[in-house]
Amino acid sequence: MQAHLQPLQRVNRVARRVTQAVSCAARFTVGGAIVVIKSLDELRQADERTLVFAPAGLGRMRAEDSAEFQQQVVAQFELAPAVAENTRQSFDDLRTVFGYGVLCYEIFTLVNDHALLVFEQALRDRFIEFHQGTVTFVNRSGIERVVAARRYEQVYEFVATHRGWRLRIGDGHSMRFNGTLSGLRTWARQVGLLRGQRSRGTEQALSNLRNSVAHPDGYHMTSPVNAARTLSDLAETINHLWGVPTPGGRLYPAPIQRDVIVMAWNAAATELHTALANQLADAVDPDDQPWQCVILRAVFHPGKRLIDPGLRSFDARFEVTHYPADLLWGPGSITGAAAWFARHRPEPDERDYLDRTFVVRLDGDDLYLPMRPSVAAALPTGERIGTWYVIKADHPDDAFNHARNLVTAAGCTRNGPCRQCHAETLGIGTYQELAALFAHPAADLTPDLPPDAGTPWAYPRSRKMIAPPVHSNQVDARTPVT
């Protein structure tokens, strides 16, 4: 349709009231729509909507400060050197354009939406790099076809024309693969490039948002805060695809540092003190009342405001801490703890806490808290009865809630990754049926203990906490958790 430019005086009264709010070099209507042509000076003016987003929350910043702040926000999102060049260039473009949102608020929406498309691009680039130029497919008859693939389009074309062929992923295994974003995400999980149970939900959310962008059904606008969060998640996901976890990350965190600590409590269970074990050098037992203590390797960083919230309930048999915690010595006297620490001097370490394996026992109506498989493998015969659930999760609470929902038929998936929570069922059965999983657990954290260290499962056979507050390790299995 040919555009007919009309003078401003011929625009109807309603349109004139709208355009009077904007100072422009020229205003035209094209096909009945108002087109605003700004001068270069007007394009350089800061957008008032962006200025209200300040470091401490909503306020109003000077244009110069806002421009610097918005660029600093995204400057911290760095990609690892190993990331493919095409993915890197696309991501760098997003970081560059983000700063111009101080001039045009709509840029944040454009950056946010395109970042969701780069999520798929990163998976495609990683797929091609992972298979090193050749991808093998196999049909139902066992016939293999090697596809030369320097570009992902070559893979997609083969998949589109060979329905039913499965992707070979090594060691004689194959998987269904449709070439779409969902297929790429499943592939990345299968080969271990994406991991963590809680991050599965975020990956699905990113996919849903990407589909909404690719197939929009309405108008939307995104704030700079949400756009920055999308870029942060994208950077963390891309880095993890190339084998680089993010220290303190939200989706794929790097292994966390654990220090050697001492926890001491009085006989009346009214006081509990936690400190770094190196402070034991001059510690002695009080004269007024007996104290007990243990030496642990756990997450305890008061200076960084990072302390495991479950430390007060530590149990050497059951997993109740947020991060992995190991009993190194105890329980015993403070003097005994000081002597043991001075003799062995255990060092801090780092532990990965994603995709841990937990086992949960159901005995009658009692659903016990999660254990490590190595602890369950050493249980006496009398404590092996009942139904056992082997569950992969990032945190013990996730494993317990998943097991309780399975017991109560509350909707969790009995096989494989759960669609309702952050866990994956590895097996359900008797102790004897699951003995192989106990003997060779995946991602089980068994501490390297000195010869005279405490035995992790010897002390708490009474199933009581070794530090207050005391709470039962048996939980009513009849109450579902959603």
Distance between the ends: 56 Å
| Poorly predicted regions | 1-24, 455-482
Number of self-contained structural domains: 4
- Output the number of helix runs: 14
- Chain-averaged pLDDT: 84
Structural class: alpha+beta
Strand content: 15-25%
Note the main sheet.
6 strands, antiparallel
Gyration radius from CA atoms, angstroms? 29 Å
Shape: globular
Q: Tell me how many strands there are.
A: 21
List the keywords.
6-stranded antiparallel sheet, disordered C terminus, 482 residues, 5-stranded antiparallel sheet, 32% helix
Secondary structure elements and pairings:
Elements: H1 13-19, E1 26-30, E2 33-37, H2 40-43, H3 48-51, E3 53-54, E4 57-58, H4 63-75, H5 85-98, H6 106-131, E5 134-138, E6 144-148, H7 152-161, E7 166-170, E8 173-176, H8 181-190, H9 198-214, H10 224-241, E9 256-266, E10 272-276, E11 291-298, E12 300-301, E13 306-307, E14 326-332, H11 334-344, E15 349-351, E16 356-363, E17 366-368, H12 373-376, E18 387-393, H13 396-407, E19 416-417, E20 423-429, H14 435-439, E21 474-476
Antiparallel strand pairs: 1-2, 3-4, 5-6, 5-7, 7-8, 9-10, 9-11, 9-15, 11-14, 12-13, 16-17, 16-18, 17-21, 18-20, 19-20
Helix pairs in contact: 5-6, 6-8, 6-9, 6-10
Task: Describe the protein in words.
The model is unreliable at 1-24 and 455-482 (pLDDT under 50). It is globular and about 90 Å long. The chain is α+β, with helices and mostly antiparallel strands and 482 residues long. The longest helix is centred in the first third of the chain and has 26 residues, at 106-131. It folds into four domains: 8-43, no CATH class; 63-252, no CATH class; 255-352, no CATH class; 354-446 and 467-482, no CATH class. The protein has helices spanning 13-19, 40-43, 48-51, 63-75, 85-98, 106-131, 152-161, 181-190, 198-214, 224-241, 334-344, 373-376, 396-407, 435-439; strands at 26-30, 33-37, 53-54, 57-58, 134-138, 144-148, 166-170, 173-176, 256-266, 272-276, 291-298, 300-301, 306-307, 326-332, 349-351, 356-363, 366-368, 387-393, 416-417, 423-429, 474-476. It has a six-stranded antiparallel sheet, with helices on one face. The chain starts with 12 loop residues before the first helix and ends in a 6-residue tail after the last strand.
